[in-house]
Amino acid sequence: MRYELYYWPTIQGRGEFVRLALEDAGADYIDVGNASDAGITEISEFLDGESTLYPPFAPPFLRAGEILVSHVANILQFLGPRLGLVPEGEAVRLWAHGLQLTVTDFVAEIHDVHHPISSDDYYEAQRDTAQARAEAFLESRLPRFLGYFEQVIAQNPDSDDCLVEGGHSYVDLSLFQTVSGLRYAFPRAMEAEMPSHPGIAALVSRVARRERIAAYLGSERRLPFSEQGIFRHYAELDSPPPT
Amino acid sequence: MRYELYYWPTIQGRGEFVRLALEDAGADYIDVGNASDAGITEISEFLDGESTLYPPFAPPFLRAGEILVSHVANILQFLGPRLGLVPEGEAVRLWAHGLQLTVTDFVAEIHDVHHPISSDDYYEAQRDTAQARAEAFLESRLPRFLGYFEQVIAQNPDSDDCLVEGGHSYVDLSLFQTVSGLRYAFPRAMEAEMPSHPGIAALVSRVARRERIAAYLGSERRLPFSEQGIFRHYAELDSPPPT
Q1: Scanning A23, A44, A237, B197, which has the fewest C-beta atoms within 10 Å of its C-beta?
Q2: pLDDT at B242
Q3: Which among A53, A91, A120 has CB closest to B155?
Q4: Full domain range(s) for residue B63
Q5: Are residue B39 and residue B107 in the same domain, yes or no?
Q6: Continuous H helices in B84-197
Q7: Domain match, A25 and A127 both
Q8: Do B151 and B38 fall within a single domain?
Q9: pLDDT confidence of residue A157
Q10: Among partner residues B108, B117, B157, which is closest to A108 by beta-carbon distance?
């Protein structure tokens, strides 16, 4: 099976959560948006409903033969069993999907820090509001989400560096990506947070050492973080420097 | 099977999307938060991980025997086949779940209109920003989401008042709730939008006429919309009156 990932070119964005699963499993896939200049046209034809009766609202979406799946969490739920990235069993798969949906919520909040008023407008036009939102995010929401995932790792009876019982899963890859992005966007705040989250730190180190992930991160396929994506580094939104 | 729904008492909130599915199917369920004064304590014990190894990040969550499921879209995906609210088949179920996740995204944006800076702070403390966000939402995001769902209904080969092929599904119930909430929150804007979305209007009317839904909406179990929930009516956030 050759999987086709449809996502906007040149940025990691939400597509990266899917790429990491495909790369980690050594899956055969094509990243349509980055594969050729025609990628954007192909994506648009799906969104317009010309190429499918199931038009997604937005990328990323994945095609696997006759099946089309939209939304990161839905794609990963679909790929998980096929790529060996989630254990067997209905209860644990619903749990993994719920965790992934919590990552989805976390990522949406991270994005909205730099776009609190409108996604359609420039950061610079909403910078003052972004600063107020960043303060609230760093003070309240960041520790709440990190604390939750830390608790989940601590409660996992099977492991101290995995979220889901039974070992490594696609949710670990997504938490790795989220923490990597947060470290890029808010380096000072994350330096302060990480010592009190040893389970997350162990998970992130473990994922980065996985053979195919390490190879991927060192390859040209891994696009850089930038101020066009979800995780953006604007120094004025990070915690103030220590005094 | 008696389903247990865990959600905060006194408000519709995100729990309402689950209630509508359970009510429409005539399922045996208990609304734990509203059932007794002990409801909040029971919810908290799940969130703290005292009652489960799978602690949800937040309500709503559902218990069905040994299974615990968090997040509206995950709960509905779980209930859909059991309650006869989604057709058979992997491809169409992934499509229904993707549509539901688009409803999730839409609902999150609707909520953030009145809380653009922080969910932890009062509306009154972020009213000016809320007005800027409401303008952007009504001008750009509301028509984009409604236009998308209208397109999906129009493309459905089986029906002109259902989202998913094969007929009525849990996604229709969620779109009904979303449009009902939008009409409560933004009556002027929705009066202007609805004439150009005849498929959505037909779907909403059809759902409201379903026997068990009509009975539920007329019962005391249907909590009122209010300024404590997702859909809040603040006149200053709606479109200006016609001049």
Answers
A1: A44
A2: 80
A3: A53
A4: 3-83
A5: no
A6: 90-114, 127-136, 142-155, 170-185, 187-193
A7: no
A8: no
A9: 93
A10: B108
Query: Among residues 5-34 of chain B, which lie with CB inside 8 Å of chain A?
Result: none
Give yes or no: residues B204 and B120 share one domain.
yes
The pLDDT, as a whole number, for residue A170 is 98
Is the CB of B154 inside 8 Å of chain A's CB atoms? no
Neighbours of A4 (CB within 10 A): 16
Q: Which two tokens stand for residue B99?
A: 């549509």
Residue B116: closest C-alpha in chain A:
A116
Residue A27 lies in a domain: yes
Quote the tokens at residue B195. Answer: 């004439």
Nearest C-alpha of chain B: how many angstroms from A243? 26
Q: How far is A211 from chain B (nearest CA, A)?
A: 29
Does A136 sit within 8 Å of B101, measured CB to CB? no
Query: Is there a domain that residue B225 lies in?
Result: yes
C-alpha A201: how far from chain center: 17
Q: Do B136 and A117 touch (CB under 8 A)?
A: yes
Report if residue A241 sits inside a domain. Answer: no
- Tell me the pLDDT band of B243, cut-offs 50, 70 and 90: confident
Q: How far apart are CA B230 and CA A144, in angstroms?
A: 21
